[in-house]
Amino acid sequence: MKSVVLQVEGMTCGHCKSAVEGAALSVDGVKQAAVDLAANTVSVEMDEQVDVNLVKQEIEDQGYDVN
User: Fold this and answer.
1) Residue from 53, 16, 22 nearest 36 by CA
2) CA 13 to chain centre
3) How do residues 36-62 score in pLDDT, each as one tens digit?
4) Does the predicted TM-score (pTM) go above 0.90?
């Protein structure tokens, strides 16, 4: 299991939180995603073989910028 923290720009509310967490969790092998709105981050726990770029792409597809 590996953990990453991604900086996500554009999140402002509970809907944003749900959208970003849902996008991350839609990637096979992602076990947990938790948004921190105050810090503009999402913490993601995933299996070792998951490509973090897939997670980033799913979040960006929801309209957020991931750094």
Assistant:
1) 16
2) 15
3) 999 999 999 999 999 999 999 999 999
4) yes
Q: 3-state DSSP call for residue 30?
A: strand
- What would the two tokens of residue 27 be? 């990637």
Assign residue 58 the CATH number of its domain. Answer: 3.30.70.100
At residue 6, what are phi and psi to the nearest 5 degrees?
A: -110, 140
Domain that holds residue 21: 2-66
Place of tokens 């720009």: 9
Tally of domains within the chain: 1
* Residue written as token pair 């953990």: 3
Confidence of residue 13 (pLDDT cuts 50, 70, 90): very high
